[in-house]
Design goal:
This protein has five helices and four strands. It is α/β, with parallel strands linked by helices. It has one domain. Helix 3 links the parallel strand 2 and strand 3.
Length: about 120
């Protein structure tokens, strides 16, 4: 083993530093602020009306999948016609990005809380 470089790849949040309670608090505050912002958004009536002239309407949004229900309610409230909503799965994006970096550097050296939650359960 002499001369072989020992590598470890470590995450910061919830791995090197534990902050679960404060993170939950700020996530909750962010959710409340996001919900409030939805009520302040004004519908673009002209575009909403134009959507009715298309055979298929796909809504592509950077909103996280954890806001699925809020988004559907907002669209229904303003009578937005659509066939499909595609929302961002940030957990999957982050996991895929991190995994690609780790595989390039050293696949067996990854220490990260995202692995323990699995991609689906980590938000």
């Amino acid at each position: 083993m002499e001369g072989k470089e020992r590598i470890i790849i470590v995450d910061i949040d919830e791995t090197l530093f534990k902050s679960r309670l404060i993170c939950r608090f700020f996530r909750k505050v962010a959710q409340i602020l996001f919900k409030l912002s939805l009520n302040l958004q004004k519908p673009n009536e002209e575009l909403i009306n134009k959507l009715r002239h298309y055979d298929k309407v796909v809504i592509l949004t950077a909103r996280g999948v954890n806001y699925w229900n809020l988004t559907e309610r907002q669209l229904q409230k303003h009578h937005v016609h659509y066939d499909e909503i595609i929302m961002c799965n940030y957990s999957k994006l982050i996991y895929t990005w991190k995994k690609s970096i780790v595989e390039r550097i050293c696949p067996d050296a990854w220490v990260d809380d995202i692995k323990s939650f699995g991609v689906e359960g980590y938000v």
